[in-house]
Amino acid sequence: MKRRKFIQRAGLSGIGIAAASAGMSCAEQSKKTNDAPVSEAKEQALNLPIVIATWNVPKATEKAWEILNKGKSALEAVEQGVMVEEADEKNQTVGKGGIPDRDGIVTLDSCIMNSNGDYGAVLALENITHAVSVARKVMEDTPHVVLAGEGAKKFALESGFMEEDLLTDDSRKQWEKWKLKSEYKPIINIENHDTIGMLAMDKSGNLSGACTTSGMGYKMRGRVGDSAIIGAGLFVDNEIGAATATGLGEEVLKTVGSFLIVELMRQGLSPQKACEEAILRIVKKNRDFKNFQVGYIAINKKGETGYYSIQEWFSCTIYKNGVNKNIKSDYYYKPSDPEQ
Ligand code: SD4
Prior knowledge:
The protein has 340 residues and is α+β, with helices and mostly antiparallel strands. Helices cover 31% and strands 20% of the residues. It has ten helices and twelve strands. It has helices spanning 26-31, 40-46, 58-69, 74-87, 131-141, 149-158, 169-181, 249-254, 257-266, 271-285, and strands spanning 50-54, 108-113, 119-125, 146-148, 196-201, 207-213, 234-237, 241-247, 294-300, 305-309, 315-320, 323-328. The strands form two sheets. The chain has an eight-stranded mixed beta sheet. A four-stranded antiparallel beta sheet has the order 7-8-9-10. A hairpin with a 4-residue loop joins strand 9 (294-300) and strand 10. The site of N-hydroxy-L-asparagine has 13 residues, from strand 8.
């Protein structure tokens, strides 16, 4: 494991309601309608479309960008973008090939949210690679927003999804090795966990997001993280912006991280400052923060993006202005700082 360096990040507290004056009032914001088309001039000013995703996932952002460039919706783009990672068996944190739970079963959590504020999710889904597409079906074809476990699988099969064994030989071998000690320390890799959260703004300026994961490696059977939970792993408000998370889901859930970031942006914070404040919220409440990772990405209606994490080695991939780029994130925990 690479060595991490840490320095303190100060001055983040006290951001909040006071920042509201810097932004649009709620009344002004609510006058804006969802899915309002933007003029060509505005499209250019914002450099639309834009895709941002957690971690180094150039193929996923490229797929999303291609779809957006054809003038299709942000919803279509984020679904198809994250599907690239779900299908990649080498990515052991998403979809097929994901690290199983401690009983050797791969369970997936995923959600999707569109620019109208509609949302769909599946929790602890088994044997279906494209959990995000099942989540979209929940959103579009049922009167519900969340389906879990057996019921989610039954719904997926009835909807035409194929049943597959998601445990690859590699993941099985690693699980068998883990079983020798069976040490219950569910692991979130600080440096490169590829749970993918993706946010996109299409040519019309509308936002959508998706998040999909196999969750913590060797988790307890039935454990569900933040990735499929509205407001925690993902939140989209087409009037304001969108945010998504990666890392230790328990901490994101406890602070309702993605919703918090969108609400901070509503109060006038930039996506960057909002991500930093949401990380600070976790750090302040959990002195154990040196031992886990959480990373956030966000976008606002101006097309500005932000990203921040607790630990070093978080990165995001942004496709903007025709350039697909992996960017290393700034981070909170810098151990050379004696005050941390
Ligand atoms: C979870 N947040 O299940 C997910 C895992 C993750 O980077 O994102 N890891 O807690």
